């Protein structure tokens, strides 16, 4: 299926397993550059190895988003990587804090 999102950049939280990993794999199949976020670097690396288009376009950010310092590290890392087109928030309870640290352009949903 072609969703017309090839070349976009997506951030997926909870991407080290389960639904988050499946979402990341599906986005990569659509040609999306995926930023994988979760606590475990090794698990994230395993998911990244399954992503299509493995030409270093997929990034890993290993942080614990239940901690303020992890949230701050994620926000800094995303700012350095550039704009996001898609955010898949696959965690409960931290979206408000995550969104508060990111600027959303007019016409886009947070």
Features:
four-stranded parallel sheet, 38% helix, alpha/beta, 16% strand, 110 residues, Rossmann fold, 4 strands
Summarize the structure.
The chain has four helices and four strands.
Write a structural description.
The protein has a single domain (9-87), classed as Rossmann fold (3-Layer(aba) Sandwich), CATH 3.40.50. The longest helix has 14 residues, at 68-81. With 110 residues, the protein is an alpha/beta fold. The chain is built from four helices and four strands; from the N terminus they run E-H-E-H-E-H-E-H. The protein has a four-stranded parallel β-sheet with strand order 3-2-1-4, covered by helices on one side. 38% of the residues lie in helices and 16% in strands. Residues 106-110 have low confidence and may be disordered.
- Derived from helix and strand composition plus strand pairing, the structural class reads alpha/beta
Mean pLDDT across every amino acid position:
84
Poorly predicted segments: 106-110
| Terminal-residue CA separation | 25 Å
Give me the CATH architecture, please: 3-Layer(aba) Sandwich
| Largest sheet data | 4 strands, parallel
């Amino acid at each position: 299926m072609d969703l017309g999102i090839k070349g976009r950049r997506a951030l997926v939280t909870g991407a080290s397993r389960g639904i988050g990993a499946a979402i990341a794999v599906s986005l990569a199949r659509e040609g999306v550059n995926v930023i994988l976020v979760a606590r475990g670097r090794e698990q994230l690396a395993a998911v990244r190895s399954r992503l299509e288009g493995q030409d270093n376009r997929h990034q890993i950010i290993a942080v614990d988003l239940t901690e303020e310092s992890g949230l701050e590290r994620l926000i800094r890392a995303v700012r350095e990587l550039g704009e996001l087109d898609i955010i898949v928030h696959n965690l409960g309870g931290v979206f408000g804090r995550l969104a508060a640290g990111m600027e959303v352009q007019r016409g886009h949903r947070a």
